[in-house]
Amino acid sequence: MIEERFDAIVVGAGPSGNAAAYTMAKEGLKVLQLERGEYPGSKNVQGAILYANALEKLIPDFREDAPLERHIIEQRIWTMDDKSYVGMHYRSEDFNEERPNRYTIIRAQFDKWFSRKVREAGATLLCETTVKELLRDAKGKVIGVRTDRDNGVAFADVVILGEGVNGLVGQRSGLRSELKPDSVALAVKEMHFLPREVIESRFNLKDNEGVVIEAMGTITAGMTGTAFLYTNQESISVGIGCIVSDFAENGATPYGLLEAFKNHPSIKPLLANSECKEYAAHLIPEGGYNSIPELYGDGWIVVGDAGQFVNAVHREGSNLAMTTGRIAGETVVWLKRRREELSKANLAEYKRRLDETFVMKDLKKYRRIPAFLHNNKHVFGLYPKLVAAAAQTWFRVDGADKLSKEKEILKSFRKGRTLSGLIGDAFKLARSWR
Amino acid sequence: MTNAVEIGASGAKVEEKLFQNRYLVDAGRPHIQIRPHEIPSKILLSLTYTCPAGCYSRNDRGQVEIAADGCLECGTCRIVTAETGEIQWEYPRGGYGVLYKFG
Questions:
Q1: Which family does it belong to (chain A) (predicted)?
Q2: Best residue in B76, B86, B99 to probe A by mutation, most A CBs within 10 Å?
């Protein structure tokens, strides 16, 4: 395929692969990046929110030409039952800052832009190329990849796998075990188009201000999952995701769930008269810290979703992807400069550096959360119902005195979950959160 | 369960959703194949509703079939059947398959 030998091969042109390739190419390393899609982004799906901090560390002036949709000035967190939501909204003028903190983006466009930066930095990108397996020398060190192109082998000192959650290369090469249906979510998403001024009036926005909604409750039909609605410039991203094993047991279809969410009385008016232009699906690694596989070995490193780098509680993933990709790239550059081998012992530096970042610290902090959510499904069904009923009791003025209303609310919680159940849940959540 | 089934049954047709998407179909080279079977397992049957593209269906003899042209390449079916080995799943050849305009 390509005769010359590379310093590094990067598998995948998503946020993690691009961050790794950019970091190494910018420092003068010879980098080959392989992407199975027709163009970078053509296989990639995300909500999507871009966290500026992770990208700034790579491209400080990215705001000058990156395709950004809206900077987020308002976050809405909803717990929903079939007819209502109870919400926590935070909106602040502080988010209208010179260098906004979070943006909505459209991944296919953003990934193309990011990829252009990678190529400008000097990396060679080959699209429409699916990597089939890793090549190893007699001692088992990874020395390159075999692709589905004719004579499609390429060699390098290190292979960085940014191949995403459904990463077949690493899996089939025995670098990590198969994903478990109970630690990965399936999310479906649609892109709904509306005129810019309609979006701005519906969400009380001006200029490029944006709103994001994250929701949980009866919308996931008793399954562990969440839904979202993000405002872009002239479109709204709307989606819902649940744990794969829950889908298999529950019998709900992902598209049926999405339709029900879109038709919820609190969501429907926000999407009214919009035109849907795309339907997408993707897996999200949700296992957290305890699901992180081996991250490095002789001649290879894993970055991004392939390494399960998603903070499910905070809905962060692309920033973890960019950060792990950057640190993998920096580690390779550092070892190359020192003329050290890219052996397992030396690549342990990647993990050491990661341990010092928010990536590992956050995932470790929440390591008990995935099991808590998996084993406490009433968090997604019963509690939203109780909270909604309590809110209605509290706000409806019907002649009943307030003390009676208070008692009714407390009784509904004790009846729904028992006192010991409530205390137990609070205790378990607090312990998982710690 | 009943509630969920009702949601599924009353939802929009998935075919209409897929119609919005762009695909480059690798004609005659399906990237997913089901192992031949007489009676489908419970896991194989679950793919008829968990697949977000509705690629799996039952034929008139009750066996599960796949039409992978609308596949969104998420990998759900691959993961669900990983232990039983009932399906063979590969990525489409480079460049083929779904082409997200927005993602």
A1: Belongs to the ETF-QO/FixC family.
A2: B76
